[in-house]
Amino acid sequence: MKQTAGALFFRRGQVLLGRRAPHKKAYPNCWDVIGGHVEAGETVEQALVREAKEEVGVTPLRFTAIGRFREPNADLYGDAMHHFFAVTEWAGGEPEPLGDEHTEVRWFDIAEACTLEGLAAAEYRPLFKRLLPLQTKG
Question: Are the CB atoms for 8 and 66 separated by under 8 Å?
Answer without folding.
Answer: yes
